[in-house]
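Holo prediction. Input below; ligand is zinc ion.
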Amino acid sequence: MQFNDVVGQHELIAKIITLVNNHHLPHALMLAGAEGSGGLPLALATAQFILCTDKHATDSCGACSSCTKMGKMQHPDIHFSFPTVKNKDKIPTSNDFIREFREFVAENPYGNDTDWLKFLDTDKQGNITALECREIIQKLQLRSFESEYKILIMWYPEYLEKEGNILLKLIEEPTDKTLLFFVTSNVEGILQTIQSRTQLFPLKRLTDLEIKEALMKKGVNEIKAVHYARIAEGNFHQALSLISGEENDVVNTLRNWLNCMYANKGIELVEWVNGMAELNKEAQKKFLEYVIQLLEHLIRVRTIGAQNLVLLESEQKMIDVLIAKGMSDFSIAEINDLLNYSIYEIERNANTKILFHSLSLRIQKIVLRKNRTYTS
Ligand SMILES: [Zn+2]
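Structure of the complex:
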């Protein structure tokens, strides 16, 4: 991973390069950024830059023996630590899962902890164990093999519980030429004792433009790239998941809602409303805004066809079903008013259980109404 492969974060990268070149990089860094902002890619690129034997002014060479080993995450002076799960009855450490971790990161450098545990095909809780902490201390006491530095990259230090305190002495007084990079998306979730001993390097939220350009670099066409960049809201991981055709939750939520209304399933509808009422205000508003947007797409599909619209396969299917069920532009206008009013009410702290229930019944009345099918 080179700096050039990292999406955005230009200012932070420039700062890191200057610190490295002046031999001023702190020995314990906390790379902290929201999910999908690229903490792990940045840690990998920084480590590669430090160890590169033929580095350029602003990036590693990508070709020397050190860079080649880093590319495969097999450099003997780089150590990885990450959440693991119980392996039969053995207390696990990252060593037991390093092969899987390399494979996971190669495929998915912007992935998160949930993806990682899914990749391991487990429903067990992830953990960074006390045994792991002791092994880290042992590993870092050894002399480096090939480079001046040895580097530990710990991904998701928020998984360290009290056992993390085993590392305090190492963080405070590391052995010579030892660097510790902690990569987190939830800095508040990390042991205070560790937080206070590291230097915070915050990552920025990625801009839509940065995500758009990174998607286009991966061969995504411009219309799609703009669309997904907007939905992803600074999370490159989310943009990639959408591109890979993963259905997002919001489509499912809408499909369930429509099923309850069209099939007149009262009990399921109450359950749906309860689920919606548990979400926070922002998520509720976002869902309603999404429905408005999808209905706008429906009108466009009917009038100009689906070309030039970027729709997930599941969205296209839902639009086809709604058209087949006779959803008219007139009904859409009425539903739109109800949705907009509900957003306004949510902002005014309405009781959302009552609000979503009443909204559902009103929309249901519209979609089940006979003889009012105005065609466009
Ligand atoms: Zn190199």
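Confidence is low (pLDDT under 50) at residues 371-376. That is the main takeaway for now.
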